[in-house]
Structures are given as C-alpha cells and as structure tokens.
Design a protein that fits this description.
The chain is elongated and about 60 Å long. Helix 6 packs across helix 7. It is built from 8 helices and 12 strands. Helix content is 45%, strand content 22%. The structure holds calcium ion (CA). Calcium ion (CA) binds next to loops.
C-alpha cells in the first residue's frame, strides 16, 4: 500500500482528502501545519506528499525547500489557492513535481497522483540496472562490472552511488548524503563521505584526479553526470 502525507491547514479540505485517498486504498498521514509536515516528511517512508502552499507557520514553499535540502526525494504535489500562485510554484522551481489550484476536481487530482506514482515507479525500476561509461551496475543484485570485469562495492557504496545517480546532474551536498545513506544512527563526519566518493571513483573510474562521472563541486559537494 502506498503512503501519502497530506499537509493542509484547512480542516475541511484535509478531512476531505483523507477520506478520498483512503477510499482509493492509500495509507494516509495528515499534518495541519508546515512544522508537522516537515517532521513527518523527513521521518516517514512516503510515496507522495500533498502540500498546501499557504500554511500558517512554515509556508509550503519553505517546507518543500527544506525537504529537498534534507535530501528527501519523495515526489511532491503542491496545492495552491490562487491562480497567480501557479507562476510562483513554477517560477521558483522549488522542487515540486506537480501542482493543482484549489478548488480542484477530485478526478483530476487522482489522475495527477497516479501519474506521479507511475513516473516514480518507472524511475525506480530503471535504477535496478544502470550503465554509465564502461560501468554497469545492477542495484537489485548488487553486482557491478567495469569494462566487463566484476567490481566489488560495499552495501554503503551502492547506497551512495544510487543516491548520486537518482540526483543525476544535480549538486548533492555531503549533508544530503549523510542524511540519506547514514541516517542518524551513527556519527560519521563529512570526511567520511569524501572517502566513500574517492573509493567509488577508484573502483568505477579507475583514477581519482580527473573524474568524468563522480564530480566534485567546489565548496558545495558532488554531482553525478552520466
Ligand atoms: Ca491553506
């Protein structure tokens, strides 16, 4: 069962969405404030977040930004109340996957939700196997080859690589990696991340001075390019 978090301060809309999505066989979590939305968005394993732009405490725009900065990759559907806010959602490129303007039709909303979930499924499926340069990675079997020869990666190296690939072309900060791959159970330093990247470069690119795929972005972090 897919889990959807709805962050909405209007109790009638929140209740309406909860009933609608539950009837559609989704597991629904709700948050009436941006603060609670952020907490649940970071903590829970979600398939989708439906986020109201106009919230009384932390507005939807900041919730969205903070989730993305924390490395939360969950797809996000933004609800806006006025048509002029649509431009804002699109123009700011705050990291939402789609948006709908209130009042919205239930059928349209469900269509959008299913479209986003289908897209996510396709991305995740694609990532079972991934090829770049002379490297072929099978994330499901945790097997990797470079120039046809087997390369051994640790479970955590697979996790780091997968996170970078899922954010292909984007700057990934050390904090995002620490947050996603290490979580909070251990206390690694950002230096740990650097060592993992070095190890991955050595194994997958053969050299570490002029990487072509696992790039360093000065003072910001790393970027994977295919
Ligand atoms: Ca609102």
């Amino acid at each position: 069962m897919k889990t959807i978090l709805v962050v909405e301060d209007d109790p009638a809309i929140l209740r309406g969405l909860q009933e609608l999505l539950t009837a559609e066989h989704f597991h629904v979590l709700t948050a009436p404030t941006g603060t609670q939305g952020l907490m649940l968005g970071k903590k829970e394993n979600l398939d989708l977040i439906i986020l109201d732009l106009g919230l009384p405490d932390v507005n939807g725009e900041d919730v969205c930004k903070q989730l993305r900065e924390a490395g939360v990759p969950t797809p996000l559907l933004m609800l806006t109340s006025k048509s002029q806010e649509m431009d804002k959602v699109l123009g700011l490129e705050m990291g939402a996957d789609d948006y709908m303007t209130k009042p919205f039709s239930v059928r349209e909303l469900l269509a959008r939700i299913h479209a986003i979930l289908r897209r996510e499924h396709a991305i995740k499926k694609d990532l079972d196997e991934y090829a770049f340069g002379s490297v072929v990675v099978d994330f499901r079997k945790q097997e990797t080859t470079r120039k046809g020869k087997a390369v051994k990666l640790s479970v955590r190296e697979y996790a780091v690589l997968k996170f970078l690939i899922l954010h292909e072309g984007e700057v990934v900060t050390r904090d995002m990696l620490l947050n996603d791959v290490w979580g909070y159970e251990t206390f690694p330093t950002t230096r740990t991340v650097d060592n993992y990247i070095l190890a991955l470069r050595k194994k997958l690119e053969g050299e570490t001075t002029t990487p072509r795929h696992l790039l360093t972005v000065h003072t910001a972090g790393y970027k994977f390019v295919k």
